[in-house]
Amino acid sequence: MASVVSPGATAEGPRLGVRRTRASVRARRLLRAAFLYAAMVVALVVVLAPFAWLLISSVAAPVDLLERPLRWIPAHVGFDRFSALTVGASPDDTSLGFRAALVNSSLVATTVTVVSMIVGTLAAYAFARLRFPGRGWLILAFMATYMLPPIALVVPLYQIMSTLGLRDTPLALMIIYSSFVTPFVIWIMRGYIDSISPELDDAARVDGCSRLGALWRVIVPVAAPGLLSTALLAFLLAWDEFLYALIMTQTNASKTLPIAITDFIGRHGVDFGLLATGGVIAAIPPVLIAFVFQRYIVAGLTAGSVKG
Amino acid sequence: MSSMATALRPRRWRRPWPESWVAAAFIAPATVVVLLVVLVPLVRAAWMSLFDISLVRPGDEPFVGLGNYLDQLTSPDFWAATGRAFFFTIVSTALELALGLGLALLMDQPLRLRWLLRSLIILPWALPTVVNALMWRWIDNAEYGALNALLTQLGLIHQYQVWLSNTDLAMWMVILADVWKMTPLVAILLLAALQSVDRELIEAAQVDGASSLQAFARILLPLITPVILVVLVLRTMEAFKVFDIIWIMTGGGPANSTQTIAIYAYQTAYQGFDFGRGAALGYLIALIIMALAAVYLRLLGRTGR
């Protein structure tokens, strides 16, 4: 009996012993709230300030950017660099390169997303639902390729692509990117499929569906949010890639946005206004995706990290 | 009854494939897309790493056995670059975890404007790495950069600093840029973990007289430790491979002060045109990462996952 009573007694003890006055409790609460709100303001400023400066730099006239002391609010604002890089008439070399890169990046990222999603989801289904010899090893092999540093593969890949006549083509990038986006898709989709009750596809198969039919008619509709999450993350991965593109691309035929923007450095000295404008344009698709589909992105990221 | 009768009728009924055949068919496309593109170069890299291949001397590629590996393992440059990669990895991962945990706890509080922070926090992560690197290079610019202007106007520094051309500061500036971009990811993942914790556990502890700090240390922290560990693993692996953010912000300089192992390998292969050594370096980096992975898998296994 005593053992049941004693925990309650010890818990009462300190509360009665301290006995704070009502005013001190309110002061403490106020202080705590003030601290939390201050921390939130600091966090918001730190998150937003660099973005704000990037946006300001992208529309400010070059003279304003090179002023000392620095003008936080530019005197001349214009969107001429935006139009020059995208839709303006009579583009110069830089704009032509940027426009080509915009097309290349979109093409490569979209193709890679589609290919990896199809191929990766099929494999993920097999890993989640089927039992077969060598399953554990294969899973490990796919995950190991995802961990491999690109720098270890880039030298021979460069030579192989040259031999195949694929150097400086978007196709080479599509092939290479699919090879690291697919394991990522397998990893996340396997988690999603694992979380769907196997009874669902068993029921479909009793009704005469093949495995492929069960995947298409049962898993795909049920896992649709997961598929969307994964596809968005796959797109972002492909859009972001730099090292392979740096080595595989030489001309406008295949240069992607990360390469085209870095080319702004050094061609005629560094034009930071132009860099900022190009950077903003390149950032629009991923930032929009992340903002609009936030719920799905967060769900995908969480699924990826919980899966371990 | 009638459906049973049709099922029993022996017409056009095909025996289903054995499960391993189905599995093979499902996995074959991924195997072609992934393993071929990875394994062929991997084997080729292993072969190349045994030769002294320099584009400066075409046609003359003597076999050197493990010479390239031994060269690297006895080279102070290799160890210095490895050390810098570890420094970058440890410092940035530690900062991202600490700040990310703080942010996650903050976003978990019942505050009035937390939806704003929750919806905006993802933006730095979404910014492409290259754009992030260029943005920070511009902010850190010695003459026209926003950082110098801000700190001077706040009276925190009295003269402009050359952030990225200073061997003592450059690595820290790169880490700052990386931490700004990646902390939100950690915060988002940890927030999700916090939200999955049963609130009643915390309330029960507080009814029993536990302070918020005690409730955090005794209940929340142990419950989210598995997620913290996974995040730690993912961030470490990524950080050790770091290339793009450094390449764009500093190119590995000044005086090699930001030359991590991936930058060193790239420079050996593509600026020194030394493909044999470059391939050997690639293998050494992969080995280090696999070793890290093995250590972590142990660690995760021990926490019962």
Written account of the structure:
The complex is a heterodimer of chains A (308) and B (305). Chain A is mainly alpha-helical and 308 residues long. Chain A has 15 helices and no strands. Chain A has helices spanning 2-18, 22-59, 62-65, 80-85, 93-129, 135-147, 150-163, 170-194, 198-206, 211-222, 224-240, 243-248, 257-267, 272-292, 294-307. In chain A, helix 9 crosses helix 10. With 305 residues, chain B is mostly helical. In chain B, 71% of the residues lie in helices and 0% in strands. Chain B contains 14 helices and no strands. Chain B has helices spanning 2-8, 19-48, 67-73, 76-108, 114-120, 122-126, 129-139, 146-153, 170-195, 199-207, 212-240, 244-249, 261-271, 275-302. Chain B starts with a helix and ends with a helix. Mean pLDDT of chain B is 87; it is low at 1-5.
Into which percent range does the helicity of residues of chain B fall?
Answer: over 70%
Give the overall shape of chain A: flat
H/E series of chain B: HHHHHHHHHHHHHH
- Biggest sheet of chain B, in brief? none
What portion of the residues of chain A fall into strands of 2 or more residues? under 5%
- The parts of chain B where pLDDT drops under 50 for at least 5 residues are 1-5
Keywords:
heterodimer; A: 308 residues; mainly alpha; 79% helix; flat; B: 305 residues; disordered N terminus
List the helices and strands and how they pair.
The complex is a heterodimer of chains A (308) and B (305).
Chain A: H1 2-18, H2 22-59, H3 62-65, H4 80-85, H5 93-129, H6 135-147, H7 150-163, H8 170-194, H9 198-206, H10 211-222, H11 224-240, H12 243-248, H13 257-267, H14 272-292, H15 294-307
Helix pairs in contact in A: 2-14, 5-8, 5-11, 5-13, 6-8, 8-11, 8-15, 9-10, 11-15, 13-14
Chain B: H1 2-8, H2 19-48, H3 67-73, H4 76-108, H5 114-120, H6 122-126, H7 129-139, H8 146-153, H9 170-195, H10 199-207, H11 212-240, H12 244-249, H13 261-271, H14 275-302
Helix pairs in contact in B: 3-14, 4-9, 4-11, 4-13, 7-9, 9-11, 10-11, 11-14, 13-14
